[in-house]
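Usage

Read records sequentially. Each one opens with the input sequence:
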Amino acid sequence: MTSTAACRFLVCLACLLPTTACRPRAEPPGTGSSPDPAADSTPAATPIAPARTEEIASGTGQSADELALRALSDRFVQGLLDGAPDSAASVYSVHAEVFAPGVPELLLGQEAVRAHLRRRLEKLRVLELDVQRSQFVVRPEVAYSFGVWRAVTQPSEGGAPDSSAGRITDVYRRTGAGPWVVSHEHASLLVPAAPAPDSVHTP
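and closes with the structure output:
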């Protein structure tokens, strides 16, 4: 090789070097400082459906489920006002668990609730019954409500009316597209506060 040809060869080699040795190294897919969002195949967690809370007293924004639950409560109230224990008991599930006001034992099942209501309505007439449920919290197959109640009753044989009041909490269930029923209820009487020690008369 002549000196002129050798020089030309070295010049060509020098021109090629910047395009090979100095070229940035290609990164394998999925590596590098900027991760590809599409490369992360981890499935996103399924969010839990939030409970829907509505104030029934406001009378606005009520869903179909909340209207159905309110109608269930109204049917119970109307059954007691009409002296119809079967109608009032129909809002409970077959296996309902109920703590009734002033009753120490747990009522197990719809039949036990019906028998209790029948005994009560044989002795008392319900003149007024107002149930104020402050909230309904609803999920697809379970819901609950809480509130207060006030009643005016009168002995069946006559006499002076008597007033009572208390708190009430209900748990409702349904299966699929079936109707809502009360599965658990705790209704209690409000007990008058004890007098302060300095107001108690002592001999």
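Summary fields computed downstream for this record:
- The mean pLDDT is 77.
- The radius of gyration is 37 Å.
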